[in-house]
Amino acid sequence: MDNADLLVEAVRNSLEAGAEDIAIRIDRHCGMVDVVVSDNSSKAIPDDVFSPGVSTKGAGRGRGLFLVKEASGGRCGLEKKDGKSVLHFSVELDGSFKDLSATIPVLFNAFPHLLIEVMQDGIPFYTLDGVSLEKAGVSVETAGGMNRLRRLAEEKEKRSR
User: Fold this and answer.
1) E-strand spans in 9-146?
2) What is the pLDDT of residues 33-59, one digit of tens each?
3) Are 139 and 145 spatial neighbours (Cβ–Cβ below 8 Å)?
4) Whole-number Å distance between alpha carbons of 51 and 45
């Protein structure tokens, strides 16, 4: 599972926990990437949330955060803070975040009201959210809209390099 897959898994976890607001911050630096996913889910966080099979969503679930723990070598955490669930993890860059334009449409297709902030060495490069996509005439509900989103993400990613 690469870093981009972990990010998709983290968003899936938020959605399955009932989140209606999800924000992602991705910061690439010194061969690492720090990811923070915050959401407004109301689910309580079990003490052993990173253990295999632990889930608030029923039996046979609970694989995603275990994968995050494994991939991050334990450099992860999940806490409630100011009414939000905040998942953070750090992983070595594996190349899957080199071109975020491939991952971003997948995320917005799963959750159109997402907020994504991309940073390099702690410096914000670009932000994508539902409002900016709407202003750009991008709809994730059609193939053409997904292609426009992919091009928009590619343009922002090129400008950030």
Assistant:
1) 22-29, 32-39, 76-81, 84-92, 115-120, 123-129
2) 999 999 999 888 888 888 887 766 655
3) yes
4) 12
The reply to whether the predicted model has a pTM over 0.85 is: no
pLDDT at residue 102, as a whole number: 73
Residue with tokens 């981009």, as numbered in its chain: 4
In the sheet with 84-92, reading across from the earlier edge strand, the strands are: 76-81, 84-92, 32-39, 22-29, 115-120, 123-129
Rounded to an integer, the average pLDDT of 68-90 is: 93
Torsion of CA 29, 30, 32, 36, to 10 degrees: -30
Of the candidates 63, 61, 62, 66, the residue with the CA atom closest to the CA atom of residue 76: 66
Q: Which residues pair with 66 in a beta bridge?
A: none
